[in-house]
Write a structure and sequence with these properties.
Blueprint lengths: L9 H18 L1 E3 L2 H9 L3 E3 L4 E3 L2 H10 L5 E3 L5 E4 L6 E3 L6 E3 L6 E2 L3 H11 L8 E2 L12 H12 L4 E3 L6 H13 L2 H6 L3 E5 L6 E2 L1 H13 L3 E5 L2 E2 L7 H22 L5 E5 L2 E2 L12 H16 L5 E3 L10 H17 L3 E3 L3 E2 L4 E2 L1 H19 L10 H10 L6 H10 L12 H6 L5 H14 L8 H17 L10
Parallel strand pairs: 1-12, 6-18, 7-20, 9-10, 10-11, 11-13, 13-15, 14-16, 17-18
Antiparallel strand pairs: 1-3, 2-3, 4-5, 7-8, 19-20
Helix pairs in contact: 1-9, 3-9, 4-5, 5-6, 5-17, 6-17, 8-9, 9-10, 10-11, 11-12, 12-16
Length: 485
């Protein structure tokens, strides 16, 4: 039996959906995209061209919900399926877009560079429980104008896992699509086997920017999946109550679904988000707060109710270093997310309110993801009934260490973590150098990166990717790309 966690009754979900529809059909959304405004008007929405406010109709919402795919798949650079976003399947990926990195060789945070990102890609490819890579942090040694496409370029050049990414600069989407098409060979092949998911974020409360609308529409036309990431802050840009902020989150997500499905019925998407509570004491947005994690799980239930695959920014921490707080917040979020059945869980590796990334934390979080994944497998009898023969053997031998039953089911039943998790005796721990958690994690980072094997992507495709990126860099004023080590 798969264990499960729920925060909302079906009646509560219906109430939230009803209130969200009222927001869209009475107050409306600001939509700053001329083509989209015309499309919405053509489908019956009341559009005020001067204020950019759109009053939706229940008919538009209903039609959009009917065409959203209940699932889709994601594939690696070799075309192998890595993700099945259906039912309660869960997949972990690192969080995205940090501005800083923890340098293992020094104290405190610093700005990351190209070599840091390459090391990250090499590492995440070796972590078993992270099904995808992400554009995790922003290298500071390139122009901001190419920061999005450059990260995707490095991820595809050095890694093989699919990528959770996004673009926040005008003109970036075309370049990022061209790189994915280069890997797949044709636009049809890319549509048939998606390689990346694009994050698309409304501006809370109740706004869609021109750039984000353009990205949702472009992705829909190309068959590139998007995750809709609404980010209300309970007590600041949303009601202080969790249910009240969920209404705003639902309205913004429903409007994103309409944008996607009016553009291209059947376009794949994830019902996602990154809501948080607002801590009035510190004026911060704690992603590791238990209420934040509760909202993530709750809107996942709404997405499941609508038969749409889901995503959440959870399993991360607001701590400033990989410490006990980081482990506490990350593990709690990961466990809650898998028990809720969030299909795409984005968070491992992240610290400091999604501002700082840590390779050491990523290694530790991989173990958290493995343990959380074991939880949802539940407890199932495996030739355990009748029990008498097993206990007869135990009484006779005084142990079951080499029993056929033990050898058959040991690795199915027991999760064995890697060396970053210490399970040795105190004496053995001392003999091995009395290493702390962070010291073990640093050692594991270097070991895994040292075992990196180059991507099997064909050399001519790597050359094409580099050519695309060099053209974009020159267009944005860079003479050359940073050296890749």
């Amino acid at each position: 039996m798969r264990p499960a966690l729920r925060f909302l009754s079906d009646d509560a979900i219906r109430d939230i959906l009803s209130e969200a529809r009222d927001l869209l059909c009475k107050l409306g959304m600001k939509v700053y995209h001329k083509e989209l405004l015309a499309l919405l008007s053509d489908h019956g929405a009341a559009v005020d061209s001067s204020s950019k406010n759109v009053i939706f109709t229940n008919d538009i919402i209903d039609k959009a919900l009917k065409t959203v795919p209940p699932s889709f798949q994601l594939y690696d650079v070799k075309g192998n399926r890595t993700h099945d976003f259906s039912h309660y399947n869960v997949h972990f990926t690192p969080a995205s877009s940090a501005l800083n990195i923890i340098d293992a060789g020094a104290d405190g945070m610093r700005k990351p560079h190209t070599l840091d990102f390459i090391r990250y890609v090499k590492l995440v490819g070796r972590l078993k429980y992270l099904a995808a890579q992400s554009t995790a942090f922003i290298p500071a040694d390139v122009s901001e104008k190419i920061a999005d496409s450059y990260r995707l370029y490095l991820a595809l050049l050095y890694g093989e896992k699919p990528v959770v990414t996004g673009t926040f600069n005008d003109g970036g989407f075309a370049v990022m699509k061209a790189m994915q098409t280069a890997v797949r060979g044709t636009e049809k092949a890319l549509k048939d086997k998606p390689l990346a998911i694009f994050s698309c974020c409304p501006t809370t409360p109740l706004k869609w920017s021109e750039h984000t609308c353009a990205d949702i529409m472009a992705c829909a036309r190309c068959g590139i999946p998007v995750e809709l990431v609404s980010m209300p802050l309970a007590g600041f840009t949303g009601p202080v109550t969790l249910a009240g902020s969920l209404v705003g989150h639902t309205a913004e997500t429903l409007s994103g679904i309409v944008i996607s499905q009016l553009t291209q019925p059947g376009a794949p998407l994830l019902y996602g988000g990154a809501p948080a509570v607002f801590d009035v004491r510190c004026e911060t947005t704690p992603m590791g707060a238990v209420e934040t994690q509760m909202m993530d799980c709750a809107y996942n239930e709404i997405g499941k109710f609508l038969n749409i695959p889901t995503q959440a920014y959870v399993a991360l921490s607001d701590a400033k270093v990989p410490d006990a707080q980081a482990g506490l917040e990350t593990s709690m979020g990961a466990v809650m997310a898998v028990l809720s059945g969030v299909n795409s869980i984005s968070g491992p590796g992240m610290l400091d309110f999604i501002n700082c990334f840590s390779l050491e934390k990523l290694v530790l979080d991989n173990e958290i993801c493995g343990m959380a994944s074991r939880i949802v497998e539940g407890i199932e009898p495996r030739e355990d009934f009748p029990a008498v023969p097993r206990y007869e053997e135990l009484l006779k031998e005084q142990h079951l260490l080499i029993s056929k039953h033990t050898r058959r089911y040991l690795r199915q039943e027991h999760y064995f973590p890697g060396p970053v998790i210490d399970r040795t005796s105190h004496e053995r721990w001392q003999e091995q150098g009395s290493l702390s958690l962070v010291e073990r994690a640093r050692r594991e980072v270097e070991r895994l990166i040292g075992e990196y094997e180059p991507s099997s992507l064909a050399p001519e495709i790597k050359k094409e990717l580099t050519g695309i990126m060099e053209v974009e860099a020159r267009r944005c004023g860079m003479d050359k790309l940073p050296d890749c080590y």
